[in-house]
Amino acid sequence: MRKKSRVAAYAVCVRDGQLLLARSPAADGLGSEWVLPGGGMEHGEDPLDTVVRELDEETGYRVEVTGLLGIDSFHHTFRHGGLRGPVDHHGVRVVYEGRVVGGDLRNEVNGSTDLAAWHDLDAVPALTRVRLVDVALKLWRERPVDGRATVPPTTGP
What is the pTM of this model? Predict the structure, then answer.
């Protein structure tokens, strides 16, 4: 079985009781999920630089990182990993707190997301979203000393 690791960085940006999220269309075109803005590190890139770059790409905003909230580790076997068979995937996600300091909200073009929007914090539980949104909000609210937040498993990463 093929093994794959991915390190990514994301930001929780809350302003006036709203959370900034990006929408990721489903690969099958039959739905979408809300995700935390952010994404994969490029080789040699620092995680802080990654989150600043990704927020700009996905939302149009320039952000200032105001804190490190924690790390989320995700391990899953994808049985249908493409032509090369199953994939044993390990994702490490660095979660920061960020503050918008410039730019204008816009949607990403030709990227992994198709819409960026602010959502009332109270409305987030009703959204179709990936597990990382819940993990990140728990880190943001509770600020655990060890930087880990445990939330019930869902179907998505």
Answer: 0.89
